[in-house]
Amino acid sequence: MRWLPLALLAGAVLAVRRRFVAVRVVGDSMAPGLRSGQVVLVRKVSLDAVRRDQVVVFAPPPGLPAFEGDPPWLVKRVAALPGETFGAAVVPPGRFAVLGDNTERSYDSRKAGLFDADALLGVMVRVLR
User: Which residues form the Peptidase S26 domain (predicted)?
Assistant: First the structure.
């Protein structure tokens, strides 16, 4: 029975790792709130759990020039969700629009259009360091 506390701890660590992940911010698109090099805690969620104005982490669309990082995650603020208006169009199901807080230095939905829900990793919970 001496192994029981260790087994419980290992199970708790696995459960947390399935639900949360740490991601390093690369670039200045979210400055001044988030700076390049900071590490953020991300809760893995589907698009249904995301709300407008939350900061999300997602994979860039295929075919873009390589971003730093492995995998190369994008960190942006949600501007529109399915059924909401973005620009002159309504966002369709399974898609979302994002904007960087630093609009002059952001690759976001103004340039790339809408992003697929399948690319979503999750929502930022807090800055770790």
Answer: 3-85, 90-125
